[in-house]
Amino acid sequence: MIHKVAAFYQFAALPDYRELREPLRAFCAGLALKGSVLLAQEGINGTIAGAPEAIDAFVHELAHGALFGGRLNNLELKFSTAEAMPFGRLKVRLKKEIVTLGDEAADPTRQVGTYVEAAEWNALIAAPDTLVLDTRNAFEVAMGTFEGAVDPEIKSFGQFKDFAAEQLDPAKHRRIAMFCTGGIRCEKASAHLLARGFAEVYHLKGGILKYLEEVPEAQSRWRGECFVFDERVALSHGLRERGLREQELGHDRDE
């Protein structure tokens, strides 16, 4: 059986997120879905897997069902497949942030950087006045990244704001192009930089996964593989499965 995998997120006001947990968990369990979903006042973030028709029903409920009442009408979604179920169980957790940065001024519902489609990304990062910044953790960067990208050498995304304070200067770094696995960390990071006075901040829409899905390998500026937080571990061009099991690597989810 081929399992369909959905990675998704949206920043949206969910003041009732605590009350949403059990109904969402029950709905997922009823569809025999497995994976991880995070709920917070600022939105939703997760990756789940199951039968194709079950994933389709889940996505329809998020975007159009009564549970969220139309508040998730702009989901960032990416689909892939797995030959074996990539998750051991279902987890629906409550968090203070759906991706942890710890900066109240970084509010993607108010301002974010300029989205760049995968087809336009190569031209942007090839420009000599563009600082290309990988916002992922160091172990992810070690598996693969874009040519010429700066590695902030952070162990978790929460350290990004310290890197920005110490290494980035609005007067010097006039144009910054950021990327991450699926896009969510860049939304927070771009909001953080804009709040600190950076003028031009861009980020890859849909993240590395969308780029690997849409850009032909012959035209790609990506080198290596993309770490994902499930048992497939890494994906390459065309979102083909690579790597060992996540448990053998021992890394916790950051996106």
UniProtKB/TrEMBL annotation:
Pfam families, sorted: Rhodanese (PF00581), UPF0176_N (PF17773)
UniProt KW keywords: Oxidoreductase, tRNA processing
Gene3D superfamilies the record matches: 3.30.70.100, Rhodanese-like domain
EC number: 1.14.-.-
Residue intervals of the Rhodanese domain: 126-220
Catalysed reaction equations from the record: uridine(34) in tRNA + AH2 + O2 = 5-hydroxyuridine(34) in tRNA + A + H2O
InterPro entries xrefs: Rhodanese-like_dom, Rhodanese-like_dom_sf, TrhO, TRHO_N
Function of the molecule: Catalyzes oxygen-dependent 5-hydroxyuridine (ho5U) modification at position 34 in tRNAs.
Family listed: Belongs to the TrhO family.
Protein's name according to its UniProt entry: tRNA uridine(34) hydroxylase
